[in-house]
Structures are given as C-alpha cells and as structure tokens.
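Contributing new complexes? Match this layout with zinc ion.
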Amino acid sequence: MKASDRTESPRTSAPSVPDDRCGYVFEAGDSLSTEGDGCCLREAWDGKDRCKWHLDADKADVLREDDFRDETNLVGGVFRGSVLSGGDSLAGRRFSSGDFSGSDLSGVDLSEADLGGANLANADLRDADFTGANLRGADLTDANARGATFEDANL
Ligand SMILES: [Zn+2]
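Output block (do not edit by hand):
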C-alpha cells in the first residue's frame, strides 16, 4: 500500500474557497453573478459541504418560500422535493440547471424566471405562471402543468 492511497478524494470546489463556504462551481455557460468568482460563496448549510441551495438532498423540509426573498442567482440549485406551492413570487429568479424534480410548484409565479436546462421532471406545475420564462432545454417529463401559463415562455 502506497502512502498516496490514503489521500482523500479531491473536492470539486475551487481551491480558494474556505471550508465553511459552499464552493459550488458554476459550469461554463451559466450566467455568473457579479459576486463570487464563478463559484458559490454562501455559507455551508448546517455543517454540510454545500449551502442550502446547492446541497444535493431532498429539500422537502429545508427550503421555505421566505428563503427566496433575497436570492436571485440560484443557478444550479437543488430544489428536489421542495414544496413551494402558491405563496411568494419566484418571478425573475435564475434557476438555470436547477433540479426541481418532484417539487410542488403549483400556483407559483415563475414569470421571467430562467429555468434553462432545469430538471422539472415529475414536478407539480399546476396553475404555475411561466409567462416570459426561459424553459429552453428544461426536462418536463411527467410534470403536471395543467392550468399553467406559458405565454411568451421560451420552450
Ligand atoms: Zn451554494
């Protein structure tokens, strides 16, 4: 056994990111925010290795609509299984490449939101408002979009 065998698997984070920060690296092509240099510098959530947005987990008991109030750049976020139905507006947020599989987004205002390449498989999109939203490349497999509005949406 070589000494090098015990090296830990490398983090995918950028090397300059402190341990208590998320460090999610935005993929090339994602629209980057002005803060942060291509990676997420939000605090890691609850002792995990990612912030609450990028943590790869079921978010049913994690995310609340209130949390979205001051957040606009949520590129690559994991919202899997979250229940966001019918409350605050999520209009205009950047959710590209996000994972909303199995989420309840019924009645949510997602107008002008960027959902390019997002995973909306099995999501509940009933009566959601996607007016002017970008859904290019989004996966809507088995999503329930009954009553949803897609006026001027980019599909
Ligand atoms: Zn993050």
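Reviewers usually confirm one structural detail per submission. For this one: Residues 22, 24, 40, 42, 50-51, 53-54 surround zinc ion (CB under 6 Å).
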